[in-house]
Amino acid sequence: MPSIKTTGANSTELYYYEQGQGRPVVLIHGWPLSHRMWESQITALSEAGFRCIAYDRRGFGDSGRPTGGYDYDTFAADLNDLMTQLDLRDATLAGFSMGGGEVARYIGRYGTDRLSSAMLLGAVPPFLMKTADNPEGVDKSVFDGMLANVKRDRIAFFEEFFPNFYNLAPGAGADLLGFTKWIAWGASPLGTQQCIVAFGETDFRADLAKFDIPTCIVHGDADRIVPIDVAGKRSHQMIAGSRLEVLPGAPHGFAATHAEALNRIMLDFLKS
After folding, report:
1. Cys-Cys crosslink for 184: which of 32, 64, 115, 231, Cβ 3.0 to 4.6 Å?
2. Contacts of residue 211, Cβ cutoff 8 Å, sequence gap at least 6
3. Phi-psi region of 22 (alpha: psi -120 to 50; beta: other; left: phi over 0)
4. Is 153 annotated as catalytic?
5. pLDDT tens digits, residue range 146-197?
6. Catalytic residue at 97?
7. Catalytic residue selected from 29, 35, 252, 258
8. Can you give the pTM of this predicted structure?
9. Helix/strand/coil for 218
10. Is CATH 3.40.50.1820 what the domain over 3-271 is classified as, yes or no?
11. How high is the pLDDT of residue 8?
């Protein structure tokens, strides 16, 4: 399997899947998924002449399962290792949900020399958790409850979580739910737990201030997991010149439920 070895503390193997030729697009998955969530996007982008590289975050998919490093500074360092070891240039970073945090922290720490553009798709920046200087955020108790429930019974948690991920009525979407749960079941339990703390409590506002490349923000206006008012709209306000695309009626998992619409937006942005 194609992989790279990360550097620094808590070093691990990062698996990546590559398809197509042309300008690189690096796809960064959400929690608690893997590169497999990008199936539709990989097909559409590679057929349109782009080189798609979708990697698995440490602890997820086919990547290694270290006992540490589940924080955004380490995730950004892992992404930097991927960028440098594959010598990717003129690349677009596209991060979904938690993966949008990697995009933000990578730009905040490593700059944009290797990048041509960025996409934040249903992404967690700028800052999810409510604090004194972030009153629009989500109460910490929500993330604490998620963490407690994942520790108590991870499989049962997913049974309740994923219908809201896709805004599905009871009994609907059995195949999609089954596929998604299959991906999530295979993740590191420790990584699944610690990533809740990472995406819930990490402040990306200083990172967004360093965006100096074209940026497309896509968000569903019916997102129950990462509300558009807390995330997408605020990131659009903070990133000068960014483009905001709102998907009417779309849930959090719009890469699957609204794949054709997302693919059109991504290709239009990449070709502009």
Report:
1. 32
2. 104, 107, 112, 118, 239, 240, 242
3. left
4. no
5. 999 999 999 999 999 999 999 999 889 999 999 999 999 999 999 999 999 9
6. yes
7. 252
8. 0.97
9. strand
10. yes
11. 85
